[in-house]
C-alpha cells in the first residue's frame, strides 16, 4: 500500500490535494461556514428550496407514512407509489411521454450513456462536459470524440468523418457547470438531425432555472420535442436528490431494462422523492421564486462587471469571476471569506491554466442587502489584490 502514500504526497506537491476543509450549517443564503457567519455564494440550491417549508413538511409526512428507507431496488420491492408520481410529474414538467428517476445525476448519466452506446458506437462530447458524462463515455467503451467547447463547426467535421458506426450520440451539458454558459442547442439539434445522431442534454443546472416554466434548456430555446434525451438532477434547483431522464416511452422502458445504475441500486427513500415532488408543485405555485433568481443573478453580474471584474457567463445563476492566476484566486477566495462571503476558488486541473476563477452562484433567496454586502466585499478584495 506504499503507492497510496506516494500518490498522496505527489498530489500535495502539485497543490491539487483535496480535503474536506469546509463545513457548512445549511444551504441558506446566510449561514455558518467553518464556524463563521457568511453570505453563501457557492450553492447549487438556486431557488433556495432546501429551506422551503413545503418541502420540509413533505419530507416529514413521507417519513411518517412510508418510513425512512426504500428497502430495495425499484424493480424488486423498492417501488412506492410516490416514485411513480414523481416520474409522471417530471414527464409532465418536461413535456415528454415518460421519465425515469435515478439515485443521482451522476448515476443517470453513467447508466444512460452505457445503456445506449457500446463498442460499435461513437459519442461526440463537448470538452467541458461534466465528469459523469465523461465517465459514462469511458465505461460504455464506445469511440469517444471530444469537440472543442461549443464548437459546432468542428463537431460537424467529426460527424462527417465518422461513418461506419452503429449509433451516433451527441452529448452536452445544457448549462456548463464551471463556466455557466449555455450549449448551442439549436445548432446541435440541426446537426443531430442532419447526421442521424441522437442528442442528449444534461440539464443539471438548467432544471428549475431556464425556460418560461423553469423546464430547462429545451424550453429556453423553444426546442421542446426536439431533444431525444433530456437528463437532469433533482439535487440543485429542485432542492432534493436524484437524477432523471425524460423522453419517449420506448427510451424510458429501455433504460428501466438496461441502465445498470438504475437496476442494481436501492431506490431513493420516499422522503427524498416527496421533497422532489413538492418542489415541482412549489415551482408552479410560486413563479416569483424563479423571477427572484434571475433578478438576483442580473444584479450581481451587473454589479461585478461595473466594478471591472471579468465575468465568464451571460445568463445563468453561475457567475464565474475570472482571476486568471491560481494563487491569486485562492487569495481572493480567502480574502472574501475573511470579509464574510463564502465562494470557492476554482483552479487547474478543474479549469484550464490561466483561467482560475472564483465561482459565484446566486440564489433566489438572497436579499438585496446580502448582495450589496457581497459586492462591497468583492470591491475591497479585488482592489487589495489588484484584480480591479
Ligand atoms: N451533470 C452536471 C452538469 C453536474 O454539474 C452535476 C453535479 N455536479 C451532475 C451531472 C451530477 O448530478 P448529481 O449531483 O445529482 O449526481
Automatic annotation (TrEMBL):
Reactions this protein catalyses: 6-carboxyhexanoyl-[ACP] + L-alanine + H(+) = (8S)-8-amino-7-oxononanoate + holo-[ACP] + CO2
Coiled coil: none
Classification via InterPro entries: Aminotransferase_I/II_large, AON_synthase_class-II, AONS_Archaea/Proteobacteria, PyrdxlP-dep_Trfase, PyrdxlP-dep_Trfase_major, PyrdxlP-dep_Trfase_small
PANTHER family reported for this sequence: CLASS II AMINOTRANSFERASE/8-AMINO-7-OXONONANOATE SYNTHASE (PTHR13693), LD36009P (PTHR13693:SF3)
Protein family according to the UniProt entry: Belongs to the class-II pyridoxal-phosphate-dependent aminotransferase family. BioF subfamily.
Biological function: Catalyzes the decarboxylative condensation of pimeloyl-[acyl-carrier protein] and L-alanine to produce 8-amino-7-oxononanoate (AON), [acyl-carrier protein], and carbon dioxide.
Summary of subunit composition and partner proteins: Homodimer.
The protein, known as: 8-amino-7-oxononanoate synthase
Species of the source: Desulfoscipio gibsoniae DSM 7213
Amino acid at each position: 500500500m506504499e503507492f497510496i502514500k506516494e500518490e498522496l504526497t505527489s498530489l500535495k506537491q502539485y497543490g491539487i490535494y483535496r480535503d474536506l476543509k469546509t463545513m457548512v450549517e445549511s444551504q441558506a443564503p446566510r449561514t455558518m461556514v467553518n464556524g463563521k457567519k457568511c453570505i453563501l455564494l457557492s450553492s447549487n440550491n438556486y431557488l433556495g428550496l432546501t429551506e422551503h417549508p413545503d418541502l420540509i413538511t413533505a419530507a416529514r409526512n413521507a417519513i411518517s407514512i412510508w418510513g425512512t428507507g426504500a428497502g430495495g431496488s425499484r424493480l424488486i420491492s423498492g417501488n412506492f407509489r410516490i416514485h411513480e408520481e414523481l416520474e409522471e410529474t417530471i414527464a409532465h414538467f418536461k413535456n415528454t411521454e415518460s421519465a425515469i428517476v435515478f439515485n443521482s445525476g451522476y448515476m443517470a448519466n453513467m447508466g444512460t450513456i452505457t445503456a445506449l452506446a457500446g463498442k460499435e458506437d461513437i459519442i461526440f462530447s463537448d470538452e467541458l462536459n461534466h465528469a459523469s458524462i465523461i465517465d459514462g463515455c469511458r465505461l460504455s467503451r464506445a469511440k469517444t470524440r471530444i469537440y472543442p467547447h461549443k464548437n459546432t463547426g468542428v463537431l460537424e467535421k467529426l460527424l462527417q468523418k465518422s461513418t461506419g458506426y452503429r449509433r451516433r450520440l451527441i452529448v452536452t451539458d445544457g448549462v456548463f457547470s464551471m463556466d455557466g454558459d449555455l450549449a448551442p442547442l439549436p445548432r446541435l439539434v440541426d446537426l443531430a438531425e442532419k447526421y442521424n445522431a441522437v442528442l442528449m442534454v444534461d440539464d443539471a443546472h438548467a432544471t428549475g432555472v431556464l425556460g418560461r416554466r423553469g423546464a430547462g434548456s429545451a424550453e429556453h430555446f423553444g426546442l421542446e420535442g426536439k431533444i431525444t434525451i433530456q437528463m437532469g438532477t433533482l439535487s440543485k434547483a429542485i432542492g432534493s436528490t436524484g437524477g432523471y431522464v425524460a423522453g419517449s416511452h420506448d427510451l424510458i422502458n429501455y433504460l428501466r431494462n438496461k441502465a445498470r445504475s438504475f437496476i442494481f441500486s436501492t431506490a431513493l427513500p420516499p422522503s427524498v422523492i416527496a421533497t422532489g415532488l413538492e418542489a415541482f408543485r412549489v415551482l408552479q405555485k410560486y413563479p416569483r421564486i424563479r423571477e427572484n433568481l434571475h433578478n438576483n443573478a442580473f444584479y450581481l453580474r451587473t454589479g461585478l462587471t461595473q466594478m471591472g471584474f471579468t465575468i465568464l457567463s451571460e445568463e445563468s445563476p453561475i457567475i464565474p469571476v475570472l482571476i486568471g492566476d491560481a494563487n491569486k484566486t485562492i487569495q481572493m477566495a480567502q480574502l472574501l471569506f475573511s470579509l464574510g462571503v463564502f465562494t470557492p476558488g476554482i483552479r487547474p486541473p478543474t479549469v484550464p491554466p490561466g483561467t482560475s476563477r472564483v465561482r459565484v452562484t446566486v440564489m433566489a433567496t438572497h436579499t438585496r442587502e446580502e448582495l450589496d454586502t457581497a459586492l462591497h466585499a468583492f470591491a475591497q478584495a479585488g482592489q487589495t489584490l489588484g484584480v480591479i
